[in-house]
Write a structure and sequence with these properties.
two-stranded antiparallel ribbon, single chain, alpha/beta, four-stranded parallel β-sheet
Length: about 170
């Protein structure tokens, strides 16, 4: 297994520290979130293609937390031809970023593991349940793992995701 962990590209201030985001904000009045997430999706594809050129990679899975989870939905569905599955943790699914054609054809190749804390006060559990229902209705193979906790990636949810990954590769 090869693990690649790209860092979000857009810096922002967190008090005295600098954090990084998957969405760009030019200023409080100009949110470049959609454009930046679509660009990030293309960059994820470029990383995967680069890695496939360098190594003998047979399957690709995207795992993401929070904004990274939102990006895993977008990048996974838009790049369904080179991605086998996604595992968004504590994220949201927004069809605004994805074409109907992508949604139609991705379900043939893309398996989805959604993990979400039942006490998440950043992104409510209803977001994960809505994504599960929406994608299941569209014919996707989706597993929803609810866990005790908030906006986090606890060890038990990680273990469940690893078991799901193993099941995908039998």
């Amino acid at each position: 297994m090869i693990v690649v962990i790209p860092e979000a590209p857009y810096p922002f201030s967190v008090g005295k520290d600098i954090g990084f985001s998957w969405t760009a904000m030019a200023n409080v009045k100009e949110d470049l979130g959609k454009d930046s997430m679509l660009l990030d999706s293309e960059n994820i594809r470029n990383i995967i293609e680069y890695m496939k050129d360098k190594y003998n990679i047979t399957k690709v899975y995207l795992l993401g937390f929070s904004q990274g989870a939102g990006l895993s939905y977008i990048a996974g569905i838009k790049n369904y031809d080179i991605i086998d599955g996604i595992a968004p943790f504590g994220g949201w699914f927004d069809e605004e970023y994805i074409t109907r054609a992508h949604l139609k054809f991705a379900k043939e190749n893309l398996d989805i593991f959604i993990a979400h804390g039942i006490n998440d006060n950043v992104i409510p559990l209803e977001s994960a349940e809505g994504a599960f229902n929406n994608l299941t209705e569209k014919g996707y193979n989706v597993h929803l793992e609810k866990f005790e906790g908030a906006h986090q990636v606890p060890a038990n949810a990680q273990k469940a995701a690893l078991e799901w990954l193993k099941d995908q590769n039998k």
